[in-house]
Every structure is written in C-alpha cells, then in structure tokens.
Design goal:
Blueprint (H helix, E strand, L loop, with lengths): L13 E6 L15 H15 L3 E5 L18 H11 L12 H8 L6 E3 L20 H15 L4 E5 L9 H9 L5 E3 L1 H15 L5 E5 L8 H8 L4 E4 L3 H8 L14 H11 L3 E2 L4 E4 L9 E3 L8 E5 L1 H12 L3 E5 L12 H15 L3 E4 L2 H10 L7 E2 L3 H9 L4 H4 L5
Parallel strand pairs: 1-2, 1-4, 2-3, 4-5, 6-7, 6-12, 7-8, 12-13, 13-14
Antiparallel strand pairs: 9-10, 9-11
Helix pairs in contact: 1-2, 4-5, 7-13, 8-9, 10-11, 11-12
Length: 410
C-alpha cells in the first residue's frame, strides 16, 4: 500500500503534482470531454485546502509528431477549465522548466496553484519511452530535464494513473531523484489501485470479466492473467471472430487475426467453459448507420461482417453479468459508435448497472468502454470507471508499474 496525500503535511510546501490532463480538443482548441480534469479535482482541492503550494504538470497529445503545429498542444484550454472548476485562477506558465518558471514557483503562497506548460514540448520527457536508454547523452538529457522539475518542489504527488505504465521523466525519473522527500499518490491513483488491484486480486464471486474491442493481440496478456482469477470471461467485439474463425466457423469479412488462430485455440483449451463466445451476431456488408443488417446464428455469409453481438448473446451475457458479484469490463461488444451496432454494448452497460444495484462491484477499464457507459447514460451507476485505457489493461495483466513502485510505502 502506498502513502497518499492524507499521510503528509503539505502546508507551506511546494507540491509537484503529476496529473493526466490529456483531454481531447476540437479543431478550435475547445475541450470536448473534461472527464480527466474532473477526476483530478479531489486531489487538487484537498492539497489547496491544506495550504499546499501547487505546481501542476501534465502532457497533452503528441506534439513531437507535429512540431510545426506545436501550438495546438498548449495546456491553455486546460488552465482555463481548471480555473472555472476550482473557482480561482490557475495561471499557465510559459514553460515547464527554466529560470522564469523557477522564479514564478518561488513566489507561490499557501493555497495557490500554477500549471506548467505541456511536458512533451521537451523531448527529454519521453526519451526512449518504456525502453532502456543505451545512449548516455540521451540519458543525461532526460536526467537534466528531470532535475529541473525536481528543483521546483518539496513533495511529489502522482495522480496520473493513465500514464503510470510509462517511464516518462515526470513519472519515474523525477520521483527517483526526489528520494528522501515525500513521494505519494493522490486520490485518483489510490482509487485505481484499490479497484484494479485489490478488488481484482481478491474478488467477490462469481467474478466475471467482459472483454471486447478489435484485436485479440491487445488482450492476450489480460486473458491469460484473468483466467487464473475469473469464473467466466465473456468475449465480444471484433476479437470474437478470431476465436470463432480459429474454431472453423465462417466469419465472412469480419476482422480477424489469422496469425493468432493457434493462440486462440490454446486459450480456449486452457479456459474450457469459462471462456464464452457469441452464439449469434449482427452482420452487414458495411459499417453504415443507414443500411440493411441481419442476425446470423451460424456462419456469416462471405459478403458480410460481424459488427455486434446478437440478441441471444445479449440475453445470455446479460444474465451472467447481472448475477455476478464482481464484474470487470474492457472493450465494446461491437461498433458502438454506429447504430444499430451499438445495441450489444448498451445492453451490457445496462447489465453492469443492474449488477451494481444488486450489490456487485463493477469496474470499467477506461477507453471505449468508459465512452460507452457515457453514451448509455449509466456512468454514475458503476462502482468504478478507470481513467486509464492502456494503463488499466497493463495493470489487469499484472505488469509492474515502476512509476508506482518508486513511491513511498505506507
């Protein structure tokens, strides 16, 4: 168990808070979904109320891929929204390191807050992300950047679960360099560790996991990990057709990964009846909101593709979910962005909400699944919706998170 912000005294101290404020923006630079900003508020409000001097930091997008469009990735819209939600000014500093930043942070008073500009405006933030760094010059560059960030604060707070699986400078190098100073988690990471860690490790039973999405390759590790813990794994989305095709069923034009047929068969053998596949599918010739669709209970015609789980599958899957005591869901059951191929996903969202009412612990693993809960209008009826898509998957898979491991133990 990691120390949290409740375990430390922050009054009069400069607090470097790593958040995940990587929100989507439209072409005009307006925030289209402020969920991640909202999720950061409990930690920020508590630290401010306790007299901390807050230095918030985050990345936004991948400015390294569009250096000529760097201005598109400024955190200015985030600073504005934070100011509105907190009811106090959150100045955006012109950079995240440098003498001007150092001088402005030094002038902070208790209960004041500033936001550093996008960390990824500096290449050093992501040098050789998730890989060893063989080039000592690159390592020196990354360490120098991290030391500048470290010099801004007396305390380090990690409340950016969505990037906890990365070894970015702000996520790992900074807290390593701050050894001897308090290094704790915020409320968001604390909650993620509780539900994705403790709850899944010691679940109330029956424990059911729903996995959807496009590719089996994205979920092999998760399936193998959950097979040792789950009573039932329900497979949906395009990834189901790789399993069905591996069993010899005709799947038409459905998305499949032929190179994984052997793996799919092996997983089926290992899981036995615990791993369940769709018994029918909603199919069409193309993904169109307006166009003919049909339900197939056998092989899918050569000119059609499976785009959603069918009514029989919805009925059986929903019953399994509703009678579970712990449910984890990652990945939609079909092409939920386009009606009528959203019905399976919406039905599973409703089943999750029903299970919650009956006393189950229900966990949604971020990304498209979280968006599906919003679309169904049921997000407030789920026990926990993770803010980290890729991070949630890797955590469920049991991969080590160095950015969390380095923080102080309670």
């Amino acid at each position: 168990m990691k120390k949290t912000i409740d375990d430390i005294n922050v009054r009069g101290k400069r607090i470097l808070v790593r958040l995940d404020l990587n929100v989507p923006l439209d072409d005009a630079g307006r925030i289209t979904d402020d969920r991640r900003i909202q999720a950061a508020l409990p930690t920020v409000k508590r630290l401010l109320a306790d007299g901390g001097r807050l230095v918030l930091m985050s990345h936004l997008g991948r400015p390294d891929e569009e250096p000529e469009q760097k201005h598109k990735y400024t955190l200015a819209p985030v600073a504005k929204r934070l100011s509105e939600l907190l009811g106090k000014a959150v100045p955006l500093l012109p950079d995240c390191v440098g003498p001007d930043v150092m001088a402005r942070v030094a002038r902070l008073h208790d209960g004041e807050v500033v936001l550093l500009e996008n960390l990824r405006f500096h290449e050093a933030e992501t040098i050789k992300d998730k890989k060893a760094v063989p080039n000592p010059k690159l390592r020196e560059q990354k360490d120098a950047f991290a030391r500048e960030l470290t010099s801004l604060a007396d305390v380090y707070v990690n409340d950016a679960f969505g990037t906890c699986h990365r070894d970015n400078a702000s996520m790992l190098t900074v807290p390593k360099l701050m050894a001897g100073k308090p290094r704790v988690v915020g409320y968001l990471v604390q909650r993620e560790l509780k539900f994705l860690g403790e709850t899944v490790s010691n679940p109330k039973r029956p424990f059911v996991c729903m996995l959807g999405g496009a590719k089996v390759s994205d979920k092999i590790g998760v399936i193998r990990s959950l097979l040792a813990k789950c009573d039932t794994i329900l497979i949906g989305g395009a990834m189901a057709y790789t399993f069905l095709a591996a069993d010899g069923m005709g799947v038409g034009k459905s998305m499949v990964e032929p190179e994984l047929y052997d793996t799919a068969r092996q997983l089926r053998t290992e899981a036995g009846p615990r791993l369940r596949l769709p018994v029918d599918s909603v199919v069409a010739s193309e993904i169109k909101a307006v166009g003919p669709s049909a339900v197939c209970t056998d092989s899918i015609p050569a000119d059609k593709m499976g785009l959603d789980i069918g009514p029989l599958t919805i009925k059986t899957y929903a019953e399994v979910v509703r009678t579970a005591k712990t449910v984890v869901w990652n990945g939609p059951m079909g092409v939920f962005e386009v009606a009528p191929f959203d019905q399976g996903t919406i039905a599973m969202a409703q089943a999750m909400a029903d299970a919650t009412v009956r006393g189950a612990i229900t966990i949604v693993g971020g990304g498209d699944s979280a968006a599906a809960m919003d679309k169904a209008g049921l997000a407030d009826r789920i026990t926990h919706i993770s803010t980290g898509g890729g991070a949630a998957l890797e955590f469920l898979e049991g991969k080590p998170f160095a950015a969390i491991d380095v923080l102080d133990e309670a």
